[in-house]
Each structure stands twice: as structure tokens, then as C-alpha cells.
From TrEMBL, chain A:
Species for this entry: Mesorhizobium muleiense
Annotated InterPro entries: Host-pathogen_enzymatic-act, Lactonase_7-beta_prop, N2O_reductase_N, PQQ_b_propeller, WD40/YVTN_repeat-like_dom_sf, YVTN_b-propeller_repeat
Signal peptide, first to last residue: 1-22
Keyword Signal appears in the UniProt entry: yes
Protein name per the record: PQQ-dependent catabolism-associated beta-propeller protein
NCBIfam families associated with the record: beta_rpt_yvtn, PQQ_ABC_repeats
Keywords: Signal
Pfam family, one: Lactonase
Signal among keywords: yes
Domain of life: Bacteria
UniProtKB/TrEMBL annotation, chain B:
The organism of origin for this protein: Mesorhizobium muleiense
Keywords, in A-Z order: Amino-acid transport, Membrane, Signal, Transmembrane, Transmembrane helix, Transport
Name of the protein this chain belongs to: ABC transporter, substrate binding protein, PQQ-dependent alcohol dehydrogenase system
TM segment ranges: 66-87
Family that this chain belongs to: Belongs to the leucine-binding protein family.
Entry superkingdom: Bacteria
Classification lineage: Bacteria, Pseudomonadati, Pseudomonadota, Alphaproteobacteria, Hyphomicrobiales
Any GO BP annotation: amino acid transport
Residue intervals of the Leucine-binding protein domain: 143-295
Family annotation (PANTHER family): LEUCINE-SPECIFIC-BINDING PROTEIN, PERIPLASMIC BINDING PROTEIN OF ABC TRANSPORTER FOR NATURAL AMINO ACIDS
Matches recorded under Pfam families: Peripla_BP_6
Keyword Nucleus: no
Length: 323, 485
């Protein structure tokens, strides 16, 4: 017992140079096949881990013990132990997994397989494929409703959000959105799904009851040509009041009021900003800036950028540990 | 806005069915299911669907398609036998499924009538030689891209009850295309992708207008077709020579390589590209300090000891050119261009139709989601995607997009949509592409690449425009001579 406590203490000092309440941010670096671990309190890189080829989508188990990482060019999902930071397992993913979402109960992964026009449903514990759902051309964005009953996939060339019943694995509705839909985020109350369209330059807000677009959010930054505004990652605060939208080569994150759908601020971060993640305390949101090889910490209270931290080459996705 | 799937609710079996129908006869579909499972899954479905045939004579085209592709998905008798064996083993399960009656009937209830959208593809073709065997155009150049877009459109169409088809007709280069075009119209094609010469295109433009047919030029780069000879019935997805030349020129200026010499061929198209390069020089501040014509004297393109002679001839040919930064080549006719790089009198980079080449698409482009279309294309065609394939893909995708957005196949509505401000298309070039309203040319970035990789894409940073930076490439609205009719 005593020995065990001792070992834990060593692990703790090894990993957490900052305060004990620190979270870890895990960033997938698409170009150099690594994952960077960043302490969110000190905003320092703790470790760089070698992973499979072309790591993109990244998420974490609800207990914080495992990271799931899409190694797109290896056609697999890697399971990384957050304590040892070693790859401990792989899951069958279907070809070219890019992005996925974890079910609210933490048991199922829904994976977009870009090359095969499929969404693959994976049982994490049994490590098996439960279903393959044919969707539109180039599936990408994946979202799941807070109650776990509805999963949404976007297809980038078909330009649709496919609403899928998670009990039957059947598509129930196909909602047309603008060109190259990249990401889906449900509001915390589950009433709306927000879908970004990279080439269309918009975010469509879809009512989860009627499955109709109720609002289309557009963006405008003085001095920037409209084509450079390419919305990708979307995150909504737990209180449902603010949405953050990463605007790609516009190098900014838009802050949207979810009541008025007005853009209240554009936060300048790094180059080609793609994905976003909150810290669990919701005080900070982190953006991945692919071309400038860094991530930016944004203060959620003030919506001011706090600091940028250099990570690996072409950072793609980010997830923060739950504790 | 509310759309449902074409095929009704069902379980796992349906997934297999739709998937197999998309992949056609391909047995190499990757995935966690083994090939064996896949084949037998298909076979099971055939029996299921056949059972349902008796009770339902009103099968739709969609089902017909599924059944047909199911049949072709079984590669041979051995597979059929294995599947039969597999079926017998699983007989209990199969019987249970039939007993519930769920599986076959569920697939037999489409909720939407299938709308057919027929696209014609008219092509002037004759085998062509090239200086390098690597540059011989693929037999299905362009058509292959059109077919990939048809498959893409049909995936989307499966959610909307739309089915696209491509009807390809080939004529000889410079043949009279009017009869072939008339036949296409008679067959009900309201959209025609054309890979024809400028003269051939003009010969059918009025016929198209009078019959409400839209032509998508995916082959001719002639500026005249967008300028003095522009026509309201023709949209252009392939860039013009001036767009290509401007894309190249911007990069050379960005590199501060401003002094150019130009060697051009003696055929009409070589001279047209040379003219586009001269225009680009004036436009972006390059200087053509010397020019030379390379006369085509009818030499055979491939001779056994040709290399020895070329190694001696090309330095001499380029010896008297004035001092320069870059040597530009305009040889669309494949007479000498490939022989210029590395053989010049002084060591200088080569650009134009040889060396660094401006292109509508590069076979190695993986940026902006390009990996996905490249993989899809290579898987379907067993070769890499080239410019004309992309122009044809884009044309067919534009029609798919128009059918999706207008929720139907009404040619007038689709044409109105394509001409409207709402229209844009994504084509793996990093930004949305739109048509120039004044001459119906698709705005697009230009790839600059050598034989191996993409070097850059234009417009280059710093070339500004009040409306769209893409309009720094080619003839802009204030200069256009086009009056659409």
C-alpha cells in the first residue's frame, strides 16, 4: 500500500510540473506523426509521443484513462494510455478514419471513413465493428446528441448532414447544408446541431426536432477576402450561451452568441485554425493552428488569446483530459 | 429540407446492399468484413429480393440497380457455391428472417420516385503521340473523371431519389460533330460535357441554345471561346490559356525571375499559348528579352538514336538567346518542349509546356482534401487523375450540385441556379469556385508543378483584386470582348 502511494507520487511529479489541478491537453500533429501533451496550467509541453501515420481525430474516454486517436494512413484507431502515454491497443476502424465521436455512455465510437463513404460504429470494449452505415461522399464531421439517441455525420462532397438513429443505425433525415461540411456540435440541451461548412463559409443551425435549418450564420472580417473564411471546428459552452467557431485560413476563432446568432468577436489565433477543445472547467478553450504549428489558449471569460504554444507539425485535433 | 432515405428502414442487410451497389463489381472493398462475408451477404440479399419480386411487381430502378449489382458482385461459380454452402450452414437464421417477413419487403418500399438525369459526353478522340511515352494521354482522359463524378452524384442522389448517367460518344478530331450532338439531344440529354476543338464547339453552340441544352467545355483552353466567340449555351470548367499563363507568370514574378526568353512551336495552338505568355509578361511585369520559333519539320517523335542528336542540337538552338532568368516553352503540339530542360546552352530553369507547368489539376495534389478525390479516382480507374479528368469531374459535379440544390432535374431551374449568385462548387482547390458571369468561365486556382509534384498554386500572395483574387488569372471583366448570345 505504501509502495503504491509512492509510485503514484513519482508518476505525479513526473507528469505535473504545475499545480495539482492541471489538465492535460493532447494535440494530434498530422504531419509529423506525433501527439503533443501540454499542461494547461503551465501551458508547457510535457511530452511528445510518437503515434501512427497521419494522426487527426482525437478524443478521450470519460474516465480520462484512454485517448483514442485516428491514425488515418494506418487505417486504425490507436488507444493510448494516459498514464504511461504508450499505445496500448488499436481498434478496427475501417479505412482512412478521420474524425469520430464518443457516445455519451462512453461505450461506442462513431467513426467517419472518408474513403469509403461509410460511418463505422465500433464497440470499444469488444473491439468490434457493430455496423457500417453508408452515407454521402467523403464523410467527415461526427456529432452525437447528449442523450445519445441521434448521431449526425456530414459528407463533404454530398454537402449533407445525415441524422442517424443510434438504436437502428439507420439514416432518418438528410439535411442539405453548404459546401464541404466539416464538423457537427450539438447544443448541450440537444435541441440543435450546429454544422460548419468550410467552403460554403457558413454554420448551419439545425433543429433536432424538425431537422430543418433554422439559422445560417455567416462571418465577415474586415480586410479579409470572403474565400479565406472557412469554418471548421465548433464548440459550444456547457451553459449553451456561446459558440466558438474555428475559421481556418482566416486565422481567427469566431465567438457567436447562441441566442442572437450574432458574431460577437473574432479572436486572432494562429494560422489555419481547425479544431477546438474546452478545458473541463470551461475557463479556457484551446485552438489548433495547423500552419503555424501551435495551439492558442483563449480565456473564455474575456475571449482574449492568452498564449500560444508551439507543438508538432500541422496540429490537427485537440482534446483535454477530464481531470 | 426534410429528406428521407430512398430505401425504407431495414437492418444490417441493407447496409451491405447499398454498399455493394456503390462499389459495383469490385471485390477488393476494404473493411472489417471479409470478402467472403461480403459476397455471401450479397447472395443472401439476392434471395431475399427475389422472394419479394413475386409479391411486388412495381420495382423501382433503384431496386433493379441493387439486384443487378448484387449479381455482378458474385465473382464466379466457386463463390456462388461457397455462398450456397454458407447459406445452408446459416439456414436457420435465414429462415427466421424470412419468417418475420421483415427483410425483403422493407427494402421494397421506396418513398420517392427516382428522377433520372442524363448527361452526354461528346469527345473528339484519336490516339496521340507524345515526346515521352509518359505523356501519352490516357485512353479515357476526361471520361474517367466524368464517371467518378457520376458515382459521387449517385451517392448523393441515393438520398434524394436522383440517378445520374453518362452517355459517351466519340468522334474524330475535326470531324463534323453536329450529327452526334443531334443524336444526343434526341436521346434526351439536356447536358453535354464536351471535349472538342473550338471549331467543333462553335458548330453546336446554337443548336444547344435552340434546344435548351447546356454544354460544359472540359477540353478547349482557347481564350476566343470566352471572348469574341463566347456563347450563352457554353460553360467552361477547363481554364483558358491566359489563366494558365497568368498563373505561371505570377509565380515567376514572385520568385523575382523577371527576364524570360520564349521558344514557341509552329502550330496554331503553340502560338496561342505563346501569345498568352506574352500577355502575362506585360500584365505582371515580366520581360521577354528574346524569342525563337521552333519549326516543326515533320520529324518522327520517336527514333532509336534520337536522344544523341537532341543532346547536341538543343544547346546549339538555345545558344544565341540573350541573357535570361527563365526559358519559357510553348509547345502544346509535343514537337520539342520535353527536350528543352537540362539541354539548354546556359543552365536556366524551364517553364511553360515543359519544366514548371501550369495545370488545372496535378496528379500529385493532396492539399485541400485532394487525397480523397485522388484515392477515389485511382481506385476506380487504376491511374492518376489529370487536368482534363478534373475539368470533366467538375462539370458533372456542377450538374449534381444543381440537381441537389434545385431538388429536381428541371433543366431550366438547374441552369438558372448555375447562373445565380447562390452557385458555387467545391473542387479540392482550397476555395469555392464560381462562374464569371460575363463569359461563363469557372474561376479557379492554377496548379504549378513538374512531373513529380506540385510546386505552388496561383494566384500568388500579393496579387490583389477588388472582387476575387481568382480574377487576377485570365481576362478580367473590364477587358472582356464577350457579349453572351
Amino acid at each position: 500500500m505504501q509502495r503504491r502511494a509512492c509510485a503514484l507520487a513519482i508518476v505525479a511529479t513526473g507528469f505535473m510540473s504545475g499545480p495539482a489541478s492541471a489538465y492535460m491537453a493532447y494535440v494530434s500533429n498530422e504531419k509529423d506523426n506525433t501527439m503533443t501533451v501540454v499542461d494547461t496550467a503551465t501551458m508547457q509541453v510535457v511530452k511528445t509521443v510518437n503515434v501512427g501515420q497521419r494522426p487527426r481525430g482525437i478524443t478521450i474516454s470519460h474516465d480520462g484513462k484512454h485517448i483514442y486517436l485516428c491514425a488515418s494512413d494506418d487505417d486504425s484507431i490507436e488507444v493510448i494510455d494516459t498514464a504511461s502515454l504508450e499505445i496500448v491497443d488499436t481498434l478496427p476502424s475501417g479505412p482512412d478514419p478521420e474524425l469520430f465521436v464518443l457516445s455519451p455512455d462512453g461505450k461506442t465510437l462513431y467513426v467517419a471513413n472518408e474513403d469509403d463513404n461509410l460511418v463505422t460504429v465500433i464497440d470499444i470494449e469488444g473491439k468490434k465493428v457493430l455496423a457500417e452505415i453508408p452515407v454521402g461522399v467523403e464523410p467527415e464531421g461526427m456529432g452525437v446528441s447528449p442523450d445519445g439517441k441521434t448521431m449526425v455525420n456530414t459528407s463533404e462532397t454530398t454537402n449533407m448532414a445525415h441524422f442517424i438513429d443510434t438504436s437502428t443505425h439507420e439514416i432518418t433525415d438528410n439535411v442539405l447544408v453548404d459546401a464541404r461540411p466539416r464538423f457537427v456540435e450539438f447544443t448541450p440541451d440537444g435541441k440543435q446541431a450546429w454544422v460548419s461548412a468550410e467552403i460554403g463559409g457558413t454554420v448551419s443551425v439545425i433543429d433536432n426536432q424538425t431537422r430543418e435549418v433554422v439559422q445560417k450564420i455567416t462571418f465577415e472580417v474586415a480586410g479579409l477576402r470572403p474565400e479565406s473564411i472557412q469554418p471548421v471546428g465548433v464548440r459550444i459552452t456547457a451553459d449553451g450561451k456561446k459558440a466558438y467557431v474555428a475559421l481556418g485560413p482566416a486565422n481567427r476563432v469566431a465567438v457567436v452568441n447562441t441566442q442572437t446568432y450574432e458574431v460577437e468577436k473574432y479572436v486572432l489565433v494562429g494560422q489555419r485554425v481547425w479544431q477546438l477543445a474546452f478545458t473541463p472547467d470551461q475557463k479556457t478553450i484551446i485552438s489548433t493552428n495547423g500552419v503555424s504549428n501551435d495551439i492558442t489558449f483563449i480565456d473564455v471569460a474575456t475571449d482574449e488569446p492568452v498564449q500560444s504554444v508551439t507543438v508538432g507539425a500541422l496540429p490537427w485535433g485537440v482534446v483535454v483530459s477530464p481531470k | 429540407m426534410r429528406k428521407r432515405t430512398l430505401l425504407g428502414p431495414n437492418t444490417e442487410i441493407r447496409s451491405v446492399a447499398v454498399r455493394a451497389s456503390r462499389h459495383g463489381t469490385k471485390a477488393d472493398v476494404r473493411g472489417p468484413l471479409s470478402g467472403f462475408d461480403k459476397i455471401c451477404g450479397s447472395a443472401k440479399l439476392i434471395t431475399g429480393t427475389l422472394t419479394s419480386r413475386r409479391s411486388d411487381n412495381n420495382r423501382t430502378l433503384a431496386q433493379e440497380r441493387v439486384i443487378l449489382s448484387m449479381t455482378s458482385a458474385v465473382p464466379g461459380t466457386l463463390a456462388a457455391f461457397l455462398c450456397f454452402f454458407f447459406l445452408t450452414v446459416n439456414v436457420a437464421g435465414a429462415l427466421a428472417q424470412e419468417a418475420t417477413g421483415k427483410q425483403p419487403t422493407a427494402t421494397a418500399k421506396p418513398e420517392k420516385k427516382l428522377t433520372e438525369i442524363k448527361i452526354g459526353y461528346l469527345r473528339a478522340y484519336a490516339p496521340q503521340l507524345a515526346l515521352s511515352v509518359l505523356d501519352v494521354p490516357p485512353r479515357d482522359e476526361g471520361v474517367a473523371g466524368g464517371n467518378v463524378a457520376i458515382a459521387d452524384n449517385n451517392t448523393t442522389g441515393s438520398f434524394l431519389g436522383q440517378k445520374f448517367s453518362l452517355d459517351v460518344t466519340e468522334v474524330k478530331p475535326d470531324a463534323d460533330v453536329v450529327p452526334a450532338f443531334q443524336e444526343m439531344i434526341a436521346k434526351g440529354n439536356r447536358y453535354v460535357v464536351a471535349d472538342l476543338s473550338a471549331r467543333q464547339l462553335l458548330s453546336i453552340a446554337d443548336l444547344a441554345r435552340d434546344n435548351g441544352v447546356l454544354i460544359f467545355n472540359a477540353g478547349a483552353t482557347d481564350d476566343s471561346l470566352r471572348e469574341e466567340e463566347c456563347r450563352a449555351s457554353i460553360f467552361h470548367t477547363i481554364p483558358t490559356r491566359s489563366m494558365l499563363a497568368d498563373g505561371l507568370a505570377q509565380y515567376l514574378i514572385w520568385k523575382q525571375w523577371r527576364r524570360w526568353v520564349l521558344i514557341y512551336g509552329s502550330h496554331e495552338r503553340d502560338q496561342l499559348f505563346a501569345e498568352a505568355l506574352r500577355r502575362a509578361a506585360t500584365r505582371f511585369g515580366g520581360e521577354i528579352v528574346g524569342e525563337k520559333l521552333f519549326e516543326d519539320t515533320g520529324t518522327a517523335r520517336r527514333t532509336d538514336s534520337g536522344v544523341v542528336q537532341i543532346q547536341r542540337q538543343m544547346p546549339v538552338f538555345t545558344q544565341d538567346l540573350p541573357e535570361h532568368d527563365v526559358l519559357l516553352v510553348a509547345d502544346e503540339s509535343e514537337v520539342f518542349g520535353t527536350y528543352v530542360p537540362f539541354r539548354t546552352w546556359i543552365p536556366r530553369p524551364v517553364a511553360g509546356t515543359a519544366g514548371l507547368t501550369p495545370l488545372a489539376w496535378h496528379p500529385a495534389s493532396e492539399q485541400w482534401g485532394g487525397t480523397q478525390i485522388q484515392n477515389r479516382f485511382a481506385k476506380a480507374n487504376g491511374r492518376r487523375m489529370v487536368s482534363k479528368d478534373m475539368a470533366a469531374w467538375t462539370a458533372v459535379r456542377i450538374l449534381g450540385e444543381a440537381a441537389t440544390r434545385t431538388q429536381g432535374a428541371d433543366p431550366r431551374k438547374m441552369a438558372d441556379f448555375i447562373r445565380s449568385d447562390d452557385f458555387s462548387i467545391a473542387a479540392f482547390k482550397g476555395q469555392k469556385l464560381t462562374f464569371r458571369k460575363w463569359n461563363q468561365q469557372l474561376r479557379q486556382p492554377i496548379f504549378l508543378g513538374d512531373t513529380r509534384s506540385v510546386v505552388s498554386t496561383s494566384p500568388q500572395e500579393g496579387f490583389l483584386h477588388q472582387l476575387s483574387e481568382l480574377d487576377t488569372l485570365g481576362v478580367d471583366e473590364p477587358e472582356t470582348k464577350c457579349v453572351l448570345k
